[in-house]
Amino acid sequence: MPKPVSSVLPVVLLGCGGVGRHLLHHIVSCRPLHAKQGVAIRVVGVGDSSSLLVADDVHSSGFDDALLTNICAAKSAGSPLSSLLGQGPCQLFKKPEANGKVIDTATVLGRSSGLVLVDCSATYDTVGLLKGAVDHGCCVVLANKKPLTGAYEDFEKLVSNFRRIRFESTVGAGLPVIASVTRIIASGDPISRIVGSLSGTLGYVMSELEDGKKISEIVKTAKSLGYTEPDPRDDLGGMDVARKGLILARLLGQRISMEDINVESLYPSELGPDAMSTNDFLESGVVQLDKSMEERVRAASLKGNVLRYVCEIGTAGCQVGLRELPKDSPLGRLRGSDNVVEVYSRCYESSPLVIQGAGAGNDTTAAGVLADILDLQDLFQKTA
Amino acid sequence: MPKPVSSVLPVVLLGCGGVGRHLLHHIVSCRPLHAKQGVAIRVVGVGDSSSLLVADDVHSSGFDDALLTNICAAKSAGSPLSSLLGQGPCQLFKKPEANGKVIDTATVLGRSSGLVLVDCSATYDTVGLLKGAVDHGCCVVLANKKPLTGAYEDFEKLVSNFRRIRFESTVGAGLPVIASVTRIIASGDPISRIVGSLSGTLGYVMSELEDGKKISEIVKTAKSLGYTEPDPRDDLGGMDVARKGLILARLLGQRISMEDINVESLYPSELGPDAMSTNDFLESGVVQLDKSMEERVRAASLKGNVLRYVCEIGTAGCQVGLRELPKDSPLGRLRGSDNVVEVYSRCYESSPLVIQGAGAGNDTTAAGVLADILDLQDLFQKTA
Ligand SMILES: NC(=O)c1ccc[n+]([C@@H]2O[C@H](COP(=O)([O-])OP(=O)(O)OC[C@H]3O[C@@H](n4cnc5c(N)ncnc54)[C@H](OP(=O)(O)O)[C@@H]3O)[C@@H](O)[C@H]2O)c1
Ligand SMILES: NC(=O)c1ccc[n+]([C@@H]2O[C@H](COP(=O)([O-])OP(=O)(O)OC[C@H]3O[C@@H](n4cnc5c(N)ncnc54)[C@H](OP(=O)(O)O)[C@@H]3O)[C@@H](O)[C@H]2O)c1
């Protein structure tokens, strides 16, 4: 059998939190597997909120595995990237010089070996770097939703060469939602509707409500189990779900923005962050939601329905909020924190395409990012 | 915005039945969409069981859309490919010369513009052509399971350059099963188990049995509705499911063959094709299965379970047959003819990744083939 030629993918990683560190770990542990598949990933830069560690020679084979492992250990212990200096042929750039160095690297590698700029940060601030990288012919992979959910022009720019961008983990973490929707679109099967439960936290809340618990108790338990954001209102407000909905809507070709999405928050503004602290919300605020939620759950149940917090993308744009759904639908059957997405199209008309599974977690999110990187391999130079 | 460069994909299609014709139809109707995406498919040859119609100049822009439409119309009316001669600059080759012409085309185009050899036939006979195409650096896309389920060496040869082959529609038609499993494997997330209901016909049979109907009545109704193969025993025997299981098992790296798969047939050999005709089976054979099936359904139901015909791939190989499953599992909840696949891995450990939807039909199968062809586009020459 002929030895397969191998592709080499240089990577700069922005963001070295839970997801970024898992990605570096997966890259290291998959080396033998990827070698067998004829592909090699070389990490030539890693950035966080304050600085960028970059290989002295970005044309080199990149950081060695010991350095990558040490980056993970240091960042997870709360040490700065500067603590890694001297552990390999690399340099440190502080912000804002760090940003210039990312663009330099994109310029140097974009049109020669190619470069994948991977965004595992959680900020809008990377969008300029990502657009710059696209301008220089680089590829972009995102777990970070924010660059895709800002101005429409930014989205348009980032996807202008659609073969060079991947963003699977922005919706449903590693679940193959974006890849599947992209396949359906490419095959000319027009998607008429996508409905999904895209928040593990809200999925958990809804299924506990169905079991008769009070929302105040559910939220407090979820917070203590680490299922929620530090301020649970970041989940209950629905903005994170709306961002995922916007990405799907834009993928379907809708020229809309966050302000066009109708988002139903599970708490009123009187209980919002401007009105009270997280602690006050947990101690005296959330309990004020118990009665009305109980009534909505009961009203739904009287009709044989259940209440779900869903994101719905149709021809009329994107809506996010509570819906009464038949107990016996894929969304109605959902229990616990799994995500589920139903896609309706000509081929999936009466019975939708359903994709379901864990839609959060550093491991699966990073696995999705890694699969995205590898999916770009045909664009990279092959060596015999 | 920079105009995206475009990829041109020359295609030779083997098999012009229900799926092949739908594929040609989709290719024609998607031209504007694909042009926007910067990709163009040019069909330079179409073959059936007796001959091959091929463009005079395979470097040309291929058959025009009028000819492609006429090919579909002629084949669907039962006319031979020879009836198309004179409708464009093309030639006809009869078998066995037709096979030589396929290889010639693969030789000429494989190392220049590239070629995608698409197999929408239903025979083992194409395997030699497919292997030849691989040898010449061509890409291969299959809806036909047979070339992947013969000798292990054939499979190994066909997937030897894994980036150049796609076979989504061999399992679950257009459902993104193979693509999703491939992503999970590439990300280093080891798959421990796949369980699926991979036959729409048997899914229908099982859900009707659950509703208390007799298997003899169900099979006769299904046959009259066109849900089964001409001889329903081709569905009831489980071999088609076993072929899908074998493809999944081989994808997971198992070096196994059909004879290693434990397949439970729903009818005993006394009721098989060697013992009686299709008509006799329908009139006096299948009724002999009523009592034992009724008992199995009842036994399952007493334990709160339902009976499903499943394919299970684990570390111990592949098993195909009836299983009692909790009513409340993704497989147990399945109704009607949808396929469903559960994938268990490190990331999907307690709760599997579930993919569900229509797993048969010419439209969705052809859409899956088309998505596969487009997924190869980065391997093809770009024109500015
Ligand atoms: N975890 C999940 O289940 C999941 C699922 C789907 C999607 N995602 C998305 O994945 C992304 C990463 O999530 P996470 O849980 O890993 O977040 P995280 O733990 O908060 O990590 C964020 C990282 O980004 C860095 N960062 C902040 N600003 C930056 C900048 N301007 N340039 C470069 N890096 C910057 C942070 O730097 P410091 O280390 O200096 O703070 C930190 O390393 C988020 O966008 C999240 O929404 C996560
Ligand atoms: N339909 C579905 O729902 C579905 C779903 C998943 C997968 N598939 C697979 O897709 C494939 C096509 O299905 P189909 O329903 O379109 O089958 P079909 O209607 O029976 O068509 C088969 C086609 O293959 C041609 N053929 C036979 N031997 C050939 C050979 N040696 N070389 C080239 N062509 C040859 C036949 O030629 P003639 O026209 O001369 O007879 C016919 O055009 C099958 O392998 C099937 O298992 C189908």
TrEMBL record, chains A, B:
L-homoserine binds at residue 229. NADP(+) binds at residues 15-20. Its EC number is 1.1.1.3. The active site is at residue 244. It catalyses: L-homoserine + NADP(+) = L-aspartate 4-semialdehyde + NADPH + H(+). It comes from the Eukaryota. Pathway: Amino-acid biosynthesis; L-methionine biosynthesis via de novo pathway; L-homoserine from L-aspartate: step 3/3; Amino-acid biosynthesis; L-threonine biosynthesis; L-threonine from L-aspartate: step 3/5. NADPH binds at residue 145. Keywords: Amino-acid biosynthesis, Methionine biosynthesis, NADP, Oxidoreductase, Threonine biosynthesis. Residues 176-374 form the Homoserine dehydrogenase catalytic domain. GO terms for biological process: methionine biosynthetic process; threonine biosynthetic process. Belongs to the homoserine dehydrogenase family. This is Homoserine dehydrogenase. It comes from Eragrostis curvula (weeping love grass).
